[in-house]
Design a protein that fits this description.
Strands 1, 2, 3 and 4 form a four-stranded antiparallel sheet that branches. Helix 5 (138-155) packs across helix 10 (286-299) and helix 6 (161-194) runs antiparallel to helix 7. With 523 residues, this protein is α+β, with helices and mostly antiparallel strands. The chain has helices at residues 8-49, 54-60, 77-90, 118-133, 138-155, 161-194, 199-225, 231-244, 247-251, 286-299, 315-321, 326-351, 353-369, 376-400, 440-448, 453-469, and strands at residues 65-66, 104-115, 482-494, 512-521. It contains 16 helices and four strands. It is 56% helix and 7% strand.
C-alpha cells in the first residue's frame, strides 16, 4: 500500500491557488452580474410595456399602458409589480437548474412618468402625430403645415355678415321714414294754401299732389313692404329670411335625420381634475400640431359617417365645439363653416369686376328710388354681404352631402345668381362641385387650427374614453392613467457565491447591490 504526504508549503500553496481561482471566478461573475443587470432591466421593462391597452391600439393605433390595468387603482404600483414579476420570470432555471447569475429585486420604481393628458394633451398629440407621420410623405406634411398657417391668417379677417345686412336695412328704413314725414308735412301745407283758391284750381292741384305722393312716397313704402319687385329688396329680404331659419334647416334636407346622441358622463377628461406625470414634456411643435389635426380626420367620425360602435356619432364636431349633444355640435360647426365661407366668398366677389358692377347697378337703382344716392355704397356692401352669405349656404349644403368646395372660388365655380337668390331657400339647391376644392373633413381640419391645443386634445380624449368604456372589461378606463413614457429604476441584489469557499471571507460577506435604469417611451 502506497502512502503519500503533502508538505505544509504545498498545502499553503494550494490554498492560495484555490483562493486566487475562486476570487478571479467571483470577479468574472460580478462583471457578468453587472451586464446581466442591464440586460435584465431592458427585458423586464420591455415586457411590461408590451402590456399596452389593446382597445386603444385597435381603435386608434396608439400605444399606452393603462397603469390601472382595467381596475380602479391609481399610481404606478401595478406597473412596478409587473416589472418585478418579469425580473423573477427571467430567472427561473427550473427544479434542477442552478443559475450562477441569480438576481433578486429589492425595489422597483417608475419615475419621470408622462401620461397622454400631460402638457394639455401634449403626450397624446405627440404620439398621434407620430402615427400620422408614418402615413405621409414630407411634401404632404409641409402642405399640412402651410394649410394651418393659412387658416390662422384667414381667421384674422372675420366679417359679421349679419351686422352688415342689418345696418344696410336700417339705413334704408330710416331714410324712407324721414322721406315719408317730409312728404306728408309738405302735403299738409300745400293743402292749406290751396283751400283758399278756386274749386276748379284746387281740384287740379290736389290731383297733382296726389300723383306726386303716389310717385314718390308709395313706391318707397311698398319697397319695404314687399309690394314691388325691387331687386335689392328681394336680395336682402331673402337673405334675412334665410338667416332667421334654424341653422340646420338652412343646410340639411331632412332635419329629422340629424343624430340626437348625447354624451352624459360628467367625469370627462375635459371636466375632471387629471392625474399628472412627473416627467418633462417638450412643447408641441407646429408640425406636430398639423399632423395631429390630420390624425383626427382619419380616426374620428363626423356628419355622414360613423366609425365606432359606441359614443357620439359626430365626434369631430364634438372635438371642435364641445357641446353635449350631436345636434348642438353640428349646429355650431355649421355656424363656423358659414362664417369661414362668408369671408372667402366676400373676397371672391370683390375680386370679380363683373359681379361688382352688377351689384353697383342694383344698388344705384335702389337708392334712386328713395332719392338718396349717397346710400349707394352702403347698399352695395350690404348686397355683396348678402350674396356672399347665400353662396356660403350653398357651399355648406354641398360639403355636408360629401362634395368639395374651393377655399377661394373662381368665377367659374360660383353658383348663385343675384337675380335668383330667392330660389336658394330650397334646401335641395347646392353649390357647384369644385374639382380643386376640399371636403367637409378638410374644412374641419382648418377650423381645428383656430381652437386651443387643450380643447381639441382633451375633447378627443373624451371621445376615446367613452368608446373604450363600451368595450367589455374596460368600463373603468381613465385616459389620464394611460402612460406613454417612464424611466424604470430597478434595485437588484445578488449573493456572493465563490468567495464563500475562501475561509478568509466566510461570515464577512454582504450582498452585491446593483441599480439599473431603463427609459421606455411610445412618443
Amino acid at each position: 500500500m502506497r502512502s503519500g504526504s503533502v508538505s505544509v508549503f504545498l498545502g499553503m500553496l494550494l490554498g492560495m491557488i484555490m483562493s486566487l481561482f475562486f476570487s478571479m471566478t467571483e470577479v468574472v461573475r460580478y462583471s457578468c452580474l453587472e451586464t446581466e443587470t442591464k440586460s435584465l432591466t431592458t427585458s423586464a421593462v420591455q415586457s411590461a410595456f408590451g402590456e399596452y391597452n389593446r382597445p386603444l391600439w385597435d381603435e386608434y393605433k396608439l400605444l399606452a399602458i393603462d397603469t390601472d390595468y382595467g381596475g380602479e387603482a391609481k399610481g404606478t404600483n401595478l406597473l412596478e409589480e409587473s416589472v418585478s414579476y418579469y425580473v423573477e420570470e427571467d430567472f427561473c432555471p427550473g427544479e434542477n437548474g442552478v443559475d450562477f447569475l441569480k438576481l433578486d429585486t429589492t425595489d422597483c420604481a417608475a419615475c419621470n412618468t408622462i401620461y397622454l393628458t400631460d402638457g394639455n394633451g401634449g403626450g397624446f398629440i405627440k404620439e398621434a402625430a407620430k402615427c400620422a407621420e408614418l402615413e405621409l410623405t414630407q411634401e404632404v406634411i409641409n402642405q399640412l403645415v402651410d394649410k394651418c398657417s393659412g387658416c390662422k391668417d384667414a381667421s384674422e379677417n372675420e366679417i359679421d355678415i349679419e351686422e352688415i345686412l342689418g345696418n344696410t336695412k336700417e339705413s334704408l328704413e330710416k331714410t324712407e321714414e324721414k322721406e315719408e314725414e317730409e312728404s306728408l308735412e309738405e302735403t299738409s301745407v300745400e293743402s292749406q294754401e290751396e283751400s283758399l283758391e278756386e274749386t276748379s284750381v284746387e281740384s287740379q292741384e290736389e290731383k297733382k299732389i296726389s300723383t306726386n305722393i303716389q310717385r314718390q312716397v308709395l313706391p318707397r313704402r311698398k319697397y319695404f313692404e314687399g309690394e314691388v319687385k325691387d331687386e335689392s329688396k328681394g336680395i336682402i329680404a331673402s337673405v334675412i329670411e334665410l338667416e332667421n331659419k334654424a341653422v340646420l334647416s338652412q343646410v340639411t334636407e331632412d332635419i329629422n335625420s340629424v343624430s340626437e346622441e348625447v354624451i352624459k358622463n360628467e367625469q370627462l377628461v375635459s371636466k375632471r381634475q387629471l392625474q399628472q406625470g412627473t416627467g418633462q414634456l417638450p412643447e408641441v411643435s407646429v408640425t406636430e400640431r398639423a399632423l395631429f389635426q390630420y390624425y383626427l380626420t382619419k380616426y374620428f367620425s363626423c356628419y355622414g359617417e360613423d366609425l365606432h360602435e359606441n359614443g357620439m356619432n359626430y365626434e369631430m364636431e364634438y372635438i371642435l365645439c364641445g357641446c353635449s349633444s350631436d345636434r348642438e355640435n353640428l349646429t355650431k360647426t355649421v355656424e363656423r363653416l358659414l362664417l369661414l365661407r362668408e369671408v372667402e366668398n366676400l373676397v371672391s366677389l370683390t375680386q370679380d369686376k363683373t359681379k361688382v358692377a352688377e351689384v353697383k347697378a342694383v344698388a344705384a337703382a335702389a337708392t334712386a328710388v328713395v332719392l338718396h344716392p349717397e346710400l349707394e355704397e352702403i347698399v352695395s356692401y350690404g348686397i355683396l354681404a348678402a350674396w356672399a352669405y347665400v353662396e356660403s349656404v350653398l357651399d355648406v349644403r354641398l360639403l355636408l352631402s360629401g362634395g368639395k368646395v374651393s377655399f377661394l372660388k373662381t368665377p367659374k365655380e360660383w353658383t348663385s345668381n343675384l337675380k335668383e337668390i330667392g330660389t336658394c331657400l330650397d334646401t335641395t339647391k347646392k353649390a357647384k362641385e369644385c374639382e380643386s376644392g376640399i371636403t367637409y373633413k378638410e374644412y374641419l381640419f382648418a377650423l381645428y387650427t383656430l381652437e386651443s391645443q387643450k380643447n381639441i386634445s382633451y375633447r378627443a380624449l373624451d371621445v376615446m374614453e367613452e368608446n373604450i368604456h363600451g368595450k367589455e372589461n374596460y368600463s373603468h378606463v381613465a385616459m389620464d392613467h394611460f402612460l406613454v413614457e417612464a424611466t424604470i429604476r430597478l434595485n437588484l441584489c445578488a449573493t456572493p457565491l465563490f468567495l464563500s469557499f475562501i475561509p478568509l471571507y466566510q461570515g464577512n460577506l454582504s450582498n452585491y447591490e446593483f441599480v439599473s435604469e431603463k427609459k421606455m417611451s411610445y412618443l
